[in-house]
Amino acid sequence: MGRLRSLIMLCIMLILIFSGCYDIREIDDVAHVLAIGVDRGVSDKWRLTLQFASLNENSGNGQQEGDGSSGGGAASESGGGQDGYTYVTVDAPSFFTGIDMLNSSVPRRLVFTHASLIVLSEELSKDDIVGDYIAPIIRFREVRRTAHMVVTKGSALDYIRANQPFIGTTLAKALQTAATESTNTGYFLHTTLSDFYNQLKSTCGQPVVTMAAVNEFRHFKEKGSKWGNEFNTGGQYLAGQLPRQGQNKIEYWGTALFDQGKMVDELNGQETRTLAIIRGEFERGFFTLQDPKEPKFVIPLDVRPAGRPKVKISFNGDTPTIDLTIHLKGDILAVQSRLHYEQDPLLSLLENTFKKNIKSEVDQLINRCKNLNLDVFKFGDVAARKFWTIDEWEKYNWNKHFKDTKVNTQVEFVIRSTGTQMKSSPIPGTEEED
Amino acid sequence: MTFFELIKNLITYQKPTKGDRFELLEDYTERADLVDLNISNMNSSKSGQDTFSDTFSFKTPKDKKHPLDVDKWNEERRQKANIQGESTSLHKDHISKELYQNQQRIKQKFSIPKNKDIIIRDLKIGGKTEAFIVYVDGMADRKTINDYILGPLMAEGPLRTEPCFKESEDHFFIDYILKNVLSVNNIIKATTYDEVILQVLNGLTALFVDDSDVCIIIESQGYEKRTVDQPITETVISGPHEAFTESLRTNLTLVRRIIRNQNLLTEILPIGKTDNSKCGIMYIDGVVNNKVVDEVKRRIESIDIDFIMGSGMLNQLIEDHPFAIFPQILTTERPDRTASFLMEGKVIIICDGTPYASVVPVTFFHMFHSSEDSFMRWQFGTFIRFIRLMAFGLALFLPAFYIALTLYHPEAVPTELLLAIERSRENVPFPVIVEILLMEISFELIREAGVRVPDVIGQTLGIIGALILGQSAVAANLVSPILVIIVSITGLGNFAMPSYYMGVAIRILKFLFIFLAAIAGFYGLSLGIFIVGGFACSMKSFGIPYFAPIAPKTKINPDVIVRQPLWRQTMRPDFTNTLNKRRAGKIARGWPYKNKGGKKK
Known about the structure:
The complex is a heterodimer of chains A (434) and B (601). Chain A has helices spanning 2-19, 95-103, 122-125, 130-139, 156-162, 171-180, 182-185, 193-201, 269-279, 346-372, 379-383, 390-396, 398-401, and strands at residues 30-40, 46-53, 71-72, 85-92, 109-111, 117-121, 148-152, 208-214, 250-259, 262-267, 285-290, 298-305, 310-316, 319-332, 406-417. With 434 residues, chain A is of the alpha/beta class.
């Protein structure tokens, strides 16, 4: 009895031991892919680009940039001694075949559990085949749905080639922090794979994706006639057009608007901010306001939301009416004209001007999207509550009716703090101002 | 039984077949309301001893079985021995009236003259009566023998001048010597050789007098012993700095000096058959649950073994689960900690020969307590206990966790860290499991070697072992640097355990978890936790569930992990079923309340 029992126990333990270790994967037998790029291929349907750490301490030396399929790419362009990141590209009939094809050249198994960036090319996105390309990635167990998803101008290959850490040494950290920078500026939205996929399936609205681009610094003009006193908000550029120069060629800027898996329009930075304000995703941003009294000066404001935007929807027959109230608050950062904006009546003037500006921007954006028949504002989520059953809602087809909506916007804005100055007064100088 | 039934029985619940397992259950005599009296009453000087015993006997249920007090118990034992002696052996064991026969018998018993340790000295009491004394050289104090035994017996005085006592009144003569001649504090009368021999071996002196069948045993112990020293393993910052020694007498005194209460009882039980060693059981009558005392005594009395060196050996013989990995008896070398356990209603076993006291019954959580906790303010004590609990987790699970993470669940590691680990493992040729075993085993080697090497180089060995070995192992690409961190944190966690034996248990279990994690990742780890936890929960330490008061849940005196302020700890642990449940008044400190505490003068 006792012997039999111990025999059985031994068997159970042996089963455990021999069937264990099945999933074992030594950490240095794999290459953890950090970024996935998808383009339309030339030799085949997919052009798959994968970026991973080369774990090579003296990277950048001796590696040649590859071209096209199965090419190994060189790593960082700046300084040695840091981690190298390398990429491989292949043209393949499908995502998974592509991985297998690449594994024949990469000596380690490619693992996607740490992929934190998915790049789609704009060309691909505009062809209404995003669903075809996204579906396999979504279904693949290893890719996290929290991966940041972007649409890039130009090819994804170029984007990944330029995707190198330039502060610090780790790309993973750079990817993460860059993605969350959206909360500080509002010039781009942080969209994940799961956001995109859920919105793609959703009957309540349309997906948006962060727009990104490789900025070749062509828009930065070192010399030329100097800027006058014309007013500019700063957000009017499209992705890849920012007049800047510096190490990092990559920029997240603006938003790509999708109509059921097909990219139809692109928002610039300022419009993206407005979109974020309406969606309730705006957290903070510096706005530049033209001085209402002296138009040649500007007043920068530090603006934060004062509560979530209130959306009320009522139906008049099949036509929805949306009452949108936006609550914002802000601080004055500077008063260049040195007028006494800290108190009424100039304070109210400032607030009203800002309200008016935001309202017109919001109305413009909503009208633009109505013309495209795209509800990217998550109004559909609220509207769906007006229906008793999902069947009714699906029958109604919100995405079809969005163009008929009437939107009444109202903006609330208060200036909470005037910064470290109570009062602006003219600086006494040698020149007589009066 | 078919094969399938066998398998079914293996995995389904079976009622424990052993019915005689000791469990400390509550019964109606132990209801709190019956014995809800405050220990502070016991010490109040005004009420006095009589008042106390009145109240106590009043509140104690009548049918409660008291443990026998020492005298009665000794008497019973003696009677039992006598009965046995009379029935089995002959009359020989009784001391004879003839002095010569007595001497021959003693010589025979001690193998004199072969045995040079035993001294027999002939003398004449008062120059008239023949007598001799027996003692063990070195065990007995020569000064006592010379000045207080031989001196008065042989000196000028009434013994010489008084007329000879009548032969028939030998008892009177013995009593006369006891009362008037021997100026030694403790004197016992013995009637059998066995008793005499046992006492002589303990260092006492036996006096045989002609024409008397009673032997006088005179206290004269005076062997070499270590003085009270600082604790070695349980050092604290705040609190007393004295530790037990090897002498049972000293140890009992050290405890009694802290608890000055007449209800603190000490019983001495023999344990080894050949080495005649003994152990002391201490408990506070009226606080302790008598079932536990009875059980301790039952287990110790049942021991039939030649030789018991000390508490370590005794503990192995009386613990509930010899095959379980967790220690079920707590050992401490601190008298103050022992005293606090006594006040909680625990039973203390102190063996002659080792500087440790064993505490029963204990729970898992006692292993994390240190005597320092109570000396510190409650916030500090609680914080330090949390650190210890964390140390327990780290020491037990960290290497296994690392293995599971890197082998099976790399997606749970932050990407940067993962890349760092990947980079550090780049040049290491072994799988992670080999790497970690290599490091853990060498660390265990350092620990073991550190205990064995002489003190002089011990310190250096620790540093060399830890630093050089870790450094050069990394430099030689045998292990990755992150592993050195993991192994050293594991080691540190282990050192933070207040209980050394718990530490050893954790060291062994750590390897089990490493293997489980290597076989099946987090799944294996959780299986292991389930199995080990299940075993631990089914364990009992002298009738008390090992995981009380968490599993099973009982009323908690707030001193398990979070240590609440001292004045909130008013009850003794519920699971010990103490007779006296309260250890403080309902309001432990009266001064914040008006008219409640503090007598006005």
